[in-house]
Design a protein that fits this description.
The protein is mostly helical. The chain has a single domain, classed as Orthogonal Bundle (Arc Repressor Mutant, subunit A). It is built from 6 helices and 3 strands; from the N terminus they run ααβααββαα. The protein has helices at residues 17-25, 30-39, 46-52, 58-70, 92-95, 98-111, and strands at 44-45, 74-79, 85-90. It has a 3-stranded antiparallel sheet. β2 (74-79) and β3 (85-90) form a beta hairpin. It is globular. The termini are far apart. This is HxlR family transcriptional regulator. Residues 10-116 form the HTH hxlR-type domain. Keywords: DNA-binding, Transcription, Transcription regulation. GO terms for molecular function: DNA binding.
Length: 117
Protein backbone atom coordinates (compact mmCIF):
# COMPACT_ATOMS: atom_id res chain seq x y z
CA UNK A 1 0.00 0.00 0.00
CA UNK A 2 1.64 3.22 -1.11
CA UNK A 3 0.97 6.63 0.40
CA UNK A 4 0.46 9.58 -1.86
CA UNK A 5 1.75 12.96 -0.87
CA UNK A 6 -0.93 15.55 -0.23
CA UNK A 7 -1.33 17.86 -3.22
CA UNK A 8 0.17 21.32 -2.89
CA UNK A 9 -3.28 22.85 -3.35
CA UNK A 10 -4.18 21.74 0.20
CA UNK A 11 -1.52 24.02 1.61
CA UNK A 12 -3.43 27.16 0.59
CA UNK A 13 -5.13 27.35 3.98
CA UNK A 14 -1.89 28.08 5.81
CA UNK A 15 -0.89 31.67 6.39
CA UNK A 16 -3.45 33.44 4.22
CA UNK A 17 -5.88 36.29 4.66
CA UNK A 18 -8.73 33.86 4.09
CA UNK A 19 -7.56 31.54 6.88
CA UNK A 20 -7.05 34.49 9.22
CA UNK A 21 -10.50 35.92 8.55
CA UNK A 22 -12.08 32.51 8.96
CA UNK A 23 -10.31 32.07 12.30
CA UNK A 24 -11.95 35.28 13.54
CA UNK A 25 -15.52 34.55 12.41
CA UNK A 26 -15.54 30.77 12.68
CA UNK A 27 -18.06 29.63 15.23
CA UNK A 28 -21.76 28.95 15.35
CA UNK A 29 -22.80 32.42 16.47
CA UNK A 30 -19.95 34.83 15.72
CA UNK A 31 -21.23 36.10 12.38
CA UNK A 32 -24.78 36.25 13.73
CA UNK A 33 -23.62 38.38 16.67
CA UNK A 34 -21.61 40.67 14.41
CA UNK A 35 -24.59 41.12 12.12
CA UNK A 36 -26.93 41.77 15.06
CA UNK A 37 -24.54 44.42 16.36
CA UNK A 38 -24.45 46.02 12.91
CA UNK A 39 -28.25 46.10 12.74
CA UNK A 40 -28.69 47.59 16.23
CA UNK A 41 -26.47 50.64 15.93
CA UNK A 42 -24.83 52.20 17.79
CA UNK A 43 -24.91 49.92 20.87
CA UNK A 44 -26.80 46.94 22.26
CA UNK A 45 -26.96 45.48 25.73
CA UNK A 46 -26.39 41.83 26.60
CA UNK A 47 -30.04 40.90 27.20
CA UNK A 48 -31.15 42.70 24.04
CA UNK A 49 -28.61 40.69 22.09
CA UNK A 50 -29.85 37.49 23.76
CA UNK A 51 -33.42 38.32 22.71
CA UNK A 52 -32.24 38.84 19.12
CA UNK A 53 -30.57 35.42 19.05
CA UNK A 54 -33.09 33.19 20.80
CA UNK A 55 -31.23 29.92 20.24
CA UNK A 56 -28.00 30.99 21.97
CA UNK A 57 -27.47 30.20 25.65
CA UNK A 58 -26.38 32.93 28.06
CA UNK A 59 -23.06 31.13 28.60
CA UNK A 60 -22.34 30.76 24.89
CA UNK A 61 -23.26 34.39 24.26
CA UNK A 62 -20.97 35.55 27.05
CA UNK A 63 -18.03 33.41 25.85
CA UNK A 64 -18.50 34.40 22.22
CA UNK A 65 -18.67 38.10 23.09
CA UNK A 66 -15.40 37.73 25.03
CA UNK A 67 -13.75 36.07 22.02
CA UNK A 68 -14.97 38.80 19.67
CA UNK A 69 -13.74 41.45 22.09
CA UNK A 70 -10.33 39.76 22.42
CA UNK A 71 -10.08 39.65 18.61
CA UNK A 72 -10.78 43.39 18.46
CA UNK A 73 -14.05 43.04 16.54
CA UNK A 74 -16.34 44.45 19.22
CA UNK A 75 -16.11 46.99 22.03
CA UNK A 76 -17.45 46.28 25.51
CA UNK A 77 -18.32 49.35 27.55
CA UNK A 78 -19.03 48.72 31.23
CA UNK A 79 -20.64 51.45 33.31
CA UNK A 80 -20.06 51.50 37.10
CA UNK A 81 -23.64 51.58 38.31
CA UNK A 82 -26.22 49.44 40.05
CA UNK A 83 -27.56 47.40 38.36
CA UNK A 84 -24.52 46.87 36.14
CA UNK A 85 -24.80 48.25 32.64
CA UNK A 86 -22.73 46.81 29.79
CA UNK A 87 -23.08 47.85 26.16
CA UNK A 88 -21.57 46.24 23.09
CA UNK A 89 -20.79 47.81 19.75
CA UNK A 90 -18.72 47.05 16.69
CA UNK A 91 -15.17 48.32 16.64
CA UNK A 92 -13.84 49.90 13.46
CA UNK A 93 -12.25 46.55 12.73
CA UNK A 94 -15.60 44.80 13.23
CA UNK A 95 -17.38 47.36 11.06
CA UNK A 96 -14.95 46.57 8.26
CA UNK A 97 -16.43 43.04 8.12
CA UNK A 98 -19.98 44.25 7.52
CA UNK A 99 -19.61 44.55 3.72
CA UNK A 100 -18.50 40.90 3.69
CA UNK A 101 -21.54 39.86 5.76
CA UNK A 102 -23.80 41.95 3.52
CA UNK A 103 -22.41 40.18 0.45
CA UNK A 104 -23.07 36.81 2.11
CA UNK A 105 -26.67 37.87 2.76
CA UNK A 106 -27.11 38.97 -0.85
CA UNK A 107 -25.62 35.71 -2.13
CA UNK A 108 -27.91 33.73 0.18
CA UNK A 109 -30.99 35.63 -0.96
CA UNK A 110 -30.15 34.92 -4.59
CA UNK A 111 -29.19 31.26 -4.18
CA UNK A 112 -31.14 29.86 -1.23
CA UNK A 113 -33.76 28.28 -3.46
CA UNK A 114 -31.28 26.85 -5.99
CA UNK A 115 -31.32 23.38 -4.44
CA UNK A 116 -35.08 23.13 -4.82
CA UNK A 117 -34.94 23.84 -8.56
Amino acid sequence: MSEKAAPDSCAFMGDTGFAYTLSLVNGKYKMIILYALAEHKPVIRFNELKRCIETISFRTLSLTLKELENDGLIIRDEYPQIPPKVEYSLSDRGKSLIPVLDMMCEWGNVHRHDVLK
